[in-house]
Amino acid sequence: MYIWFFTQLTNLTFMDFFQLSSRIERSASPDFGDIFSRTFDLYKKVWWQGFLMIACVFIIMIPFMVVVMLPMAGLSAFAEASEVGDAIEPIAIFSTLSWAFLAGLAMVIFMSFITYALIAGFLRVCKNADYYGNADTSDLFYYCKARYFGKTFVLGLAAAGISLIALMMCILPAYYVAVPINLFLVIFAFNPELSVSEIIKISFKLGNKYWILIFGLTLVLGMIASLGALACGIGIFFTACLQVIPLYYIYKDAVGFDEEKLVVEKF
Fold this sequence. Notes:
Layout: H1 2-26, H2 32-82, H3 90-132, H4 146-169, H5 171-190, H6 196-209, H7 211-226, H8 236-239, H9 245-254, H10 259-266
Organism: Neptunitalea lumnitzerae
Transmembrane segments: 46-79, 99-123, 153-175, 212-238
Protein name: Glycerophosphoryl diester phosphodiesterase membrane domain-containing protein
């Protein structure tokens, strides 16, 4: 009985993967102007959650930065002292650098999880605001749970690894993989049951089919979002989410959502 249940569960995961692939293959090309205008319409409903997303990442980053920088500041003070005759012990240098490295690594791991989880949660906010008209702030933290830690962390590592390999091959491949990498989170947000490899495959499939459209939307809306920095830098907290919203519409138009699941989620 347990073997049968495990087999059915595995088949369900693969059915979801093949269903997504099939939908992408059969989808019609989304319209640039339509997605552009709908992005600003939805932004009016979710701007507050977008602000909270960026603010949370920034606030959580501060203590980690302090933990990393304090030992380095102490080492700098020792270096100044050595100029007036006091020698720095090699063990102190080694300990400080080791601490900075470990703390920095921990910061990267944790911030990768928090950033990916919050962006995925924001995409969930976008879907609910689009379908039901209300943006629930609690959805922003939906993926900030222990059971999603491993998957978001591995997705972050995969994105970093693919980007690094693309950069080593030259600049153009880096531009190419940037589009599928941007889709990792939207695929994960609406299909968290998929494996990391399946998420990556679906992202590249969708990204390859609509690469020019996605790149154009990301570039144009990224430039518009960056204008928020003109407001003493604080405005970027309110406009940065503009780069995320079109990814939701790309997914909605190319893949779509099951109506039965939407009814269940509503209630």
